[in-house]
């Protein structure tokens, strides 16, 4: 069953989408995240008929997001839904999960981590652009090799704000 909730943030109202975890009756472990969408996000989720509004199932996510935006949380500890994305996308997203708070890496760095190079950097950029878990899976920490902020589904200004919140230099490690 698909569950959803909305949670306020300094970026606007976020839409959280998840799947009920087997055996979970709701509460702190009630939903494995499928998507975190920003207002106006390119390709962001939208509530569909048949989805269940279940804010209680996302209470743990809301607490962590609040702590992140208040500067008290540097790493999310959340359950993600299994089977989302292709094998290649999941490999790229795993690299995103390893980028430390307050640091940035280049698209080329991510490509090297998954064994891609040259034209593979474009495929990495596409996989990053399809990350359904904005903010919690930190695709905003990936920038151009020249230090420039490149595309972000939530908009480049939002990417700048998230990096600023983390005190991240716009430079490649």
Automatic annotation (TrEMBL):
Gene3D superfamilies: Methylated DNA-protein cysteine methyltransferase domain, Winged helix-like DNA-binding domain superfamily/Winged helix DNA-binding domain. One of its GO terms (biological process) is DNA repair. Residues 87-168 form the Methylated-DNA-[protein]-cysteine S-methyltransferase DNA binding domain. It comes from the Bacteria. GO terms for molecular function: methylated-DNA-[protein]-cysteine S-methyltransferase activity. It catalyses: a 4-O-methyl-thymidine in DNA + L-cysteinyl-[protein] = a thymidine in DNA + S-methyl-L-cysteinyl-[protein]; a 6-O-methyl-2'-deoxyguanosine in DNA + L-cysteinyl-[protein] = S-methyl-L-cysteinyl-[protein] + a 2'-deoxyguanosine in DNA. InterPro entries: MethylDNA_cys_MeTrfase_DNA-bd, MethylDNA_cys_MeTrfase_DNAb, MGMT_N_sf, WH-like_DNA-bd_sf. Keywords: DNA damage, DNA repair, Methyltransferase, Transferase. SUPFAM superfamilies: Methylated DNA-protein cysteine methyltransferase domain, Methylated DNA-protein cysteine methyltransferase, C-terminal domain. Its EC number is 2.1.1.63. Belongs to the MGMT family. This is methylated-DNA--[protein]-cysteine S-methyltransferase. It comes from Streptomyces fulvorobeus.
